[in-house]
Amino acid sequence: MDVALVGLAAELTAMAAADHQGAAQAHSEDPVAQLAWRRLTAQHADRLTEIMDEHGWPTAALVGADGARAAWLIAQHADRQLDVQRRALALMTAAVSEGAASPRDLAFLRDRTLVNEGRPQIYGTQIAGIRDGAPVPFPCEDPDRLDARRAEVGIPPFAEYVAQFPVA
Asked: 3-class secondary structure for the chain?
């Protein structure tokens, strides 16, 4: 990896670390904290757009596994910039078809984008909230085949997935 790409990989992983650190602010009761989270994710999405303009989808071959995972996380959290999510989804879809990106990560991004568009998700990865002590997904397309679709992309069955969620 050349020096510029090493720097890009480091930048992406630093952005993902900041994302992880700031994620608790997303649902804070403090409006200032919520605004800080929105600004952070918007700045990251803007930078990801620049990266996609210059390099296409940041695959592991380009920026290493950690950098590629970081790019996915940034796209995943670009909820208020649907154009960025849609573009990332298109580029990542092409990368998956070439074997250069994770089908699992693509499934999560596809669901997130669909939910943000107000459409049913495909893999049941996006949780709307907790009802009667159990996580409830946003509406899903063909729920009877949900676990089969999840298995195709390497995501555990829905019941196993939601068992990880803390129930308050």
From this structure: CCHHHHHHHHHHHHHHHHHHHHHHHHHCCCHHHHHHHHHHHHHHHHHHHHHHHHHCCCCHHHHHHHHHHHHHHHHHCCCCCHHHHHHHHHHHHHHHHCCCCCHHHHHHHHHHHHHHCCCCECCCCCEEEEECCEEEECCECCHHHHHHHHHHCCCCCHHHHHCCCCCC
